[in-house]
């Protein structure tokens, strides 16, 4: 597992700075309010993509990994075909539903919302590729599409736009849209090339589709709740019209995500290993995986958090600009604490999902998200980005604690650094 972790880490070590550079350039090119509007629209795109792509990577990782382990090539082909059909058909339904909403309630910002809508099919197709490649045991390549391809294309797009257009959120979003469309095509092509057997269209029977549909609903709920937990504060601040606070929170999140990225590295390689251990009935292997994953991530995350805590003000000023220091540092510290605590739990939700206990994970996510929603709504209108960050940190703790209790009940051990 360490070798896979290292390969995924290398992808993120290259990709995260690229993504950060894109955000820095956008923050310096756009005004604080326009950068906040851009961030708000990206959050909307991520949110409305949940019905299309939510849960697909997790479901495909499980199904592809399981079918290839049992040498069931037809099921592998049918799963990938069904996922692509789902992305295209559900994207059309989302387009109709959201277009109606825009026409009725949001005509003033229709252009930005339609750009967010246009990203949805690309996000879905990238998710298909990501889940399939992880199921094939290629986690580093799966993560590379988003981490290594999107940022450079965005940089090129922003450079071109900055030469030809005025600084505006809509122009930055256009560059983002082009990047995602190109990466979706490249990722699917790469999946086809790396597939151990030829990928060709194949239709699953009704029984299998119903099984996948039921599992996808559970995975989509889990993914949707997880996505909402990361985007809810941005959405609330944006809906309140506090675009400057959205920008401050966005900058704080960029820094805090550095602390949480090691957990994403390990999750990218952990899924198939959990599936294999659970199917073999090896509870000791599950316990060992949980402990090892949590310890590796905490060893990497804690020093990163300490550096950001000590030098956060200077780093924000050097990168994003002095305009963001006063509004972003305090939220950054709160989010760092939340991320370090989250990392210490390991990946209880992933263990539940990959072991077939999706509902238990959903209950934990719903409970934690409810706490987050309550605190974000209560504190955002009064304290802005600072209050929103407190709500997010409390929600992260609640989600992981409840998921850990569920893991103890279902799998027989409490996950994390001191798994027992």
UniProtKB/TrEMBL annotation:
Keywords: Cell membrane, Membrane, Transmembrane, Transmembrane helix
Compartment(s) of residence: Cell membrane
GO cellular component: plasma membrane
Main subcellular localisation: membrane
A Pfam match: Polysacc_synt_3
Annotated transmembrane regions: 12-31, 37-60, 80-104, 110-128, 148-166, 172-194, 215-238, 258-276, 296-316, 328-350, 362-379, 385-403
Keyword Disulfide bond: no
Membrane topology, as annotated: Multi-pass membrane protein
Source organism: Pseudosulfitobacter pseudonitzschiae
InterPro entries, per the entry: Poly_Biosynth_Transport (IPR050833)
Protein name in UniProt: Oligosaccharide flippase family protein
Keyword flag Zinc: no
Signal peptide range: none
């Amino acid at each position: 597992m360490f070798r896979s972790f290292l390969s995924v880490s290398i992808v993120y070590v290259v990709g995260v700075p690229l993504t950060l550079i894109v955000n820095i350039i956008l923050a310096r090119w756009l005004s604080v309010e326009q950068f906040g509007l851009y961030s708000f629209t990206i959050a909307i795109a991520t949110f409305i993509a949940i019905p299309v792509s939510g849960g697909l990577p997790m479901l495909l990782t499980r199904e592809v990994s399981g079918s290839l382990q049992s040498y069931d090539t037809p099921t592998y082909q049918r799963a990938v075909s069904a996922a692509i059909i789902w992305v295209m058909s559900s994207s059309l339904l989302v387009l109709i539903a959201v277009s109606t909403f825009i026409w009725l309630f949001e005509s003033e910002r229709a252009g930005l919302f339609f750009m967010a809508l246009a990203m949805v099919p690309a996000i879905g197709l990238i998710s298909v590729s990501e889940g399939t490649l992880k199921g094939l045991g290629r986690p580093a390549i799966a993560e590379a599409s988003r981490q290594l391809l999107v940022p450079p294309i965005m940089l090129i797009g922003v450079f071109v736009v900055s030469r030809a257009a005025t600084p505006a959120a809509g122009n930055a979003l256009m560059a983002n849209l082009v990047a995602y469309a190109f990466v979706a095509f490249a990722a699917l092509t790469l999946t086809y090339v790396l597939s151990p057997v030829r990928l060709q269209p194949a239709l699953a029977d009704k029984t299998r589709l119903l099984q996948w549909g039921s599992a996808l609903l559970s995975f989509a709920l889990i993914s949707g709740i997880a996505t909402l937990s990361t985007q809810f504060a941005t959405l609330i601040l944006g809906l309140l019209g506090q675009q400057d606070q959205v920008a401050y929170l966005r900058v704080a999140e960029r820094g805090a995500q550095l602390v949480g990225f090691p957990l994403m590295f390990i999750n990218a390689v952990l899924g198939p290993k959990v599936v294999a251990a659970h199917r073999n009935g090896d509870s000791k292997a599950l316990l060992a995986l949980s402990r090892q994953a949590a310890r590796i991530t905490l060893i990497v995350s804690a020093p990163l958090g300490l550096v950001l805590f000590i030098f956060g003000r200077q780093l924000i000023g050097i990168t994003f600009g002095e305009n963001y220091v006063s509004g972003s540092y305090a939220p950054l510290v709160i989010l760092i604490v939340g991320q370090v605590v989250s990392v210490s739990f390991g990946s209880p939700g992933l263990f539940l999902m990959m072991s077939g206990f999706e509902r238990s994970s959903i209950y934990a996510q719903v409970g934690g998200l409810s706490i987050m929603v309550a605190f974000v709504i209560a504190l955002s209108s009064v304290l802005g980005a600072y209050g929103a960050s407190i709500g997010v940190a409390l929600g992260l703790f609640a989600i992981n604690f409840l998921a850990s209790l569920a893991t103890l009940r279902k799998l027989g051990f409490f996950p994390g650094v001191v798994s027992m």
